[in-house]
Amino acid sequence: MAGNRTFTMIKPGAVRNGHIGAILQHINAGGFKIVAMKYTQLSAQKAGEFYAVHKERPFYGELVEFMSSGPIVAAILEKDNAVEDFRTLIGATNPAEAAEGTIRAKYATSIGENAVHGSDSDENAAIEGSFHFAGTEMF
Ligand code: CMP
């Protein structure tokens, strides 16, 4: 059965470009409830841990540097079929391929600086949510 939670980050580029409010509004309009949220900055070490699955990829160093380059908004979101529906809402990883009207089509500038992260499975949503939030910070 599909789970009802996913995890997202509004990435440093979208924060720098002033898109926090518009992206949160888009998420709310998509029917997602915010279960947990914080404005924070990842250290290079923490960003490296979060994206450890990509360690062998050629873009890993660039990804870690970018994700630790400024503040992010981290959030856990709730909705039926949350992981799949959120990935539809944000669009393809590469904004050049993201469907019109999606968050990445509107606010991403490149594949590396693609505005938002979205979990790719229920299992990873739980792992990623716990990476950023204690149980007492989820509502
Ligand atoms: P995200 O969904 O946060 O998960 C991994 C990230 O790696 C992805 O978004 C992209 O921002 C980034 N990424 C994936 N492919 C590339 C690439 N070819 N070059 C740079 N960054 C990439």
Short description:
By secondary structure, the protein is α+β, with helices and mostly antiparallel strands.
Topology:
Blueprint: E1 5-10, H1 12-16, H2 20-29, E2 33-40, H3 44-50, H4 60-67, E3 72-78, H5 82-90, H6 103-107, E4 116-118, H7 122-132
Antiparallel strand pairs: 1-3, 1-4, 2-3
Write a structural description.
- It contains 7 helices and 4 strands, in the order βααβααβααβα.
- The chain is an alpha+beta fold and 139 residues long.
- The protein has a single domain, classed as Nucleoside diphosphate kinase-like domain (Alpha-Beta Plaits, 2-Layer Sandwich).
- The chain has a 4-stranded antiparallel sheet with strand order 2-3-1-4.
- The protein starts with a strand and ends in a 7-residue tail after the last helix.
- The relative contact order is 0.26.
- The model has no long low-confidence stretch (mean pLDDT 97).
- Bound molecules: adenosine-3',5'-cyclic-monophosphate.
- Adenosine-3',5'-cyclic-monophosphate is lined by residues 54, 59, 62-63, 93, 111-112, 114, 117.
Write a concise keyword list for the protein shown above.
139 residues, alpha+beta, Alpha-Beta Plaits, 4-stranded antiparallel beta sheet, binds adenosine-3',5'-cyclic-monophosphate
